[in-house]
């Protein structure tokens, strides 16, 4: 588990009590490399894994070749003795969404191939549940029950546990690929509704943190427009432009099915909170406030 003092409040509980906004908090990621790993996950999952130094170096090399790439370890408890290991790649950029998979017999094979080129396309979305308890205890407290509920409703090809995805204080965290859609504060009772919406091409706005392909400011603007206009379909909005207006202020323009919408977004500091359970002191996180023009 994380190194938080035993009697300290959970960071996610403080965030919920403060009603910290979820919008505009999805990690900024364009490309994803997911590698099945059945060993223990340490706080720094890749560095602390039992993968060889050569495989670790290769994964870091692959990540460095594409801007904003995140390497995650994934697992499913029922695959401990499976003959092959799953590797997924995804592109979450708007208009370029792609998910693909390949299977390898052992991790060393990754030293000789590029999964981004070798993987075969996957049609159905992939759901990742962060259960990385050694990174933050909230990911165990809320991620494990969330995983149980998600795995009950989806088959093996559609759902995996994963290492740290960002935003521990918004646990339980669920990410849907290839779009890079982040959902937060998803409890067991929320799962059916979130999955039903997503699988029908709709966002569950109550839990929606944002899309990883956009900056925090753009995410905040998108969520504001969706909430005001009732636009929940993935395809209801398309980003047109982002115009810096002043320091820490932007105008964000979206084309929507109800016409063009522009939103001013301001960066400010939120309420004091623990960013993670192991944070030494409370801090005021950056937040992005969207206001219609």
Largest sheet: number of strands, sense, barrel closure: 10 strands, mixed
What assembly state would you assign to the polypeptide chains in this entry?
A: single chain
What is the percent of helical residues?
10-25%
- Rounded radius of gyration (Å): 19 Å
Mean pLDDT reading = 95
Overall 3D shape: globular
String of helices and strands: HEHEEEHEEHHEEEHEHEEEE
Low-confidence stretches: none
What is the tally of helical segments? Answer: 7
Beta-strand content: 25-35%
Structural class: alpha+beta
Distance between the termini: 46 Å
Strand order of the largest sheet: 5-4-3-1-2-7-6-8-9-10
Number of strands: 14
Keywords:
alpha+beta, single chain, 293 residues, four-stranded antiparallel β-sheet, 29% strand, ten-stranded mixed β-sheet
